[in-house]
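Ticket #4471: structure output looks truncated?

Reporter: J.K.
Steps to reproduce: submitted the chain below (486 residues) through the standard prediction queue, then opened the result file.
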Amino acid sequence: MKRIPFLLLLLLPLLLSAQSQKIKLSEAIKIAQEKSPQYVRAVNTYQGSYWRYRNFKADFLPQIRLDAVLPQYSNSIRRITNDLGQDIFVNQNQSRIEADLSINQKVPLTGGQFFVSTALERVDRYGDDAATNYSLVPFSINYFQGSLFYNPYKWQRKIEPLRYEESKRNIIENMENISLTTCMRYFGLLKAQVSLDIAKKNLSNQDTLLQITKGRFKIGKVAENSLLQIELSHLISKNNVTTNTILLKKTSQDLARFLELDTESIELEVPEKLVEFGVDVAKALAEAENNRKSVIEFRRRRLEAEQELAEVKGSNRLQMTLSANFGLNRRADMYDDLFQDYDQQQNVSLRVGIPIFDWGVSKSRRKMAEADLSLIENDIKQEKQEFEQEIYLHTLNWSSQRDFLETAEKAQEIALKRYEITKKRYVLGKITITDLNIAQQEKDKAVVDYLNSLEKFWVDYYTLRKLTLYDFAVDEKITIEDIIFD
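Returned output as attached by the reporter:
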């Protein structure tokens, strides 16, 4: 058995890593939707919106909180006010322990907040008059409402669900953007590979034709002008190989970095045409209105403008702030005495503010909010029209893309066949080098035009998916479950 040389063992990992990676368009899109920087950004944006919505929902549930002072010690001279209303200085040498357990509940119906709490406090005095005192508030109910004419919770409960739904649709659109970007980068590299292959084949053909032309020139069968022309074509072919090699390097780097691949040596396959399917304009518009984030965004923006106007109106007229409290309390020198003979505590406060004359400040604020609402409504109307027009025109354009692609494919077949026939006739000396160059240029153009047409076909397909969030090829709606799970 032959032994593998030690140097070959060292180079084997490098040789394996240098092997090219074969990727299809569908595989490239799948990789991009799992690894690309755009994917990471899309997921992070969605997660931020998701946790914002979770925070919104949790904020309307009862909130339990414990606050405690464990302990607070003070030994200093402090100024206090005695029972006669006089300020005196006393020596304070004491420690304090306090605990407060509260439950807070927002009230969406009114816009206020309920607080239920219980509190226990102990104060220890040190020195000649050492003593211990306790204070207990076993039960206290508080209600506070900042305004009787504006309820912020009502607007939050309308806007935040829309904002979250918008974020779910947004990540689907972002994923379709990733598909679109991947498609364009894929075809960018594919066209570079094909262009380099064409340039190399042309250079090889030019080498052969140059030798044939030189031989004919020596025996006087072709003029010097024909020899110079083939030499010029040969130099142009060499430059084309260099230019397309650089382009291939750039496009392979762009795709490799976008897909987070370990190698820049990538082999791409020419994508096949999709199965035939029709797209009805009315269905495309209906799916877009049901699925796109723009429709939700329009509603959210209008509600936000209406909220701003409601807040301005609520603060521009009679202002009323309500607070109320009912509870029990008890003070004692002994801990066991805290739980008997409770004292009641109640208070109600209604604060009223009436704007009398403010030089038109309130009116101007209201008019500005009304103008902003009118502007938003007008913008939304125009954007909705542009939204519908974009879908309508793209749907009409899509219906003709398959015809364009088939025409380009047929033109490529004809151009390739014509070039092979023309090259054979030139070798036989029946046509000039000018005719051959024209056939070659038409052949190269037909190949590139076909790739451009195929690229536009696929780009338009993914654009259609993005515009409608609907996959007409399989007749299914694109949903959030297809991409990410909470």
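Triage note (M.O.): checked the attachment and the full token line is present. The CA atoms of residues 281 and 392 lie 6 Å apart.
Status: closed, working as intended.
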